[in-house]
TrEMBL record:
<dbReference type="InterPro" id="IPR038586">
    <property type="entry name" value="Tctex-1-like_sf"/>
</dbReference>
<protein>
    <submittedName>
        <fullName>Uncharacterized protein</fullName>
    </submittedName>
</protein>
<dbReference type="GO" id="GO:0045505">
    <property type="term" value="F:dynein intermediate chain binding"/>
</dbReference>
<dbReference type="GO" id="GO:0007018">
    <property type="term" value="P:microtubule-based movement"/>
</dbReference>
<dbReference type="Pfam" id="PF03645">
    <property type="entry name" value="Tctex-1"/>
</dbReference>
<dbReference type="InterPro" id="IPR005334">
    <property type="entry name" value="Tctex-1-like"/>
</dbReference>
<dbReference type="GO" id="GO:0005868">
    <property type="term" value="C:cytoplasmic dynein complex"/>
</dbReference>
<dbReference type="GO" id="GO:0005737">
    <property type="term" value="C:cytoplasm"/>
</dbReference>
Length: 158
């Protein structure tokens, strides 16, 4: 029959437990010359500021023009065609923003299309961002048959 190895006695008091946990062998402590030096970098030395800014006015004009072209010619709201049209609108806005050549920006676009039956609609968003570098733009369209809202956010990746 094999003998099981003896287990050390557990500490009996809190003081014994503290001494056991805080006991560090001298070879585990590194000499000062072995500790690597930490380099401190000032915030002003980092490549933080974007080379170009998101032009929210230009994007808003594009969104409004696009919504008027695509939704203004619809004879009525079609719930089967609305999902594809939402994706198309979002993609067109995203490609237009990408053509602005904004390096290190994350582009997020959301589009909503619905039937207009004299009811109200509210569109809200919340974001956590840096107001020095990040921006957004919204555009909307409304006629007697359909409404549409497109929002675009440009977030600078630091």
């Amino acid at each position: 029959m094999a003998e099981t190895p003896a287990t050390p006695n557990p500490p009996e008091t809190l003081q014994d437990m503290k001494e056991e946990l805080t006991a560090v062998p001298p070879e585990a402590i590194a000499p000062v010359e072995m500790v690597q030096k930490v380099k401190i970098v000032k915030h002003s030395e980092l490549p933080y500021a974007p080379p170009a800014r998101f032009q929210s006015g230009k994007v808003k004009d594009f969104i409004n023009k696009l919504l008027k072209e695509r939704l203004g010619s619809l004879p009525a709201y079609d719930f089967e065609a609305a999902p594809a049209l939402c994706r198309e609108l979002a993609d067109l806005v995203k490609y237009e923003i990408r053509d602005m050549n904004l390096p290190r920006y994350k582009i997020v676009v959301q589009s909503v299309i619905g039937e207009s039956k004299n009811q109200g609609f509210q569109f809200a968003s919340k974001s956590l961002w840096d107001p020095q570098t990040d921006d957004y733009s919204f555009g909307s369209f409304l006629n007697e048959h359909v409404f549409g809202v497109v929002g675009a956010w440009a977030l600078y990746l630091t």
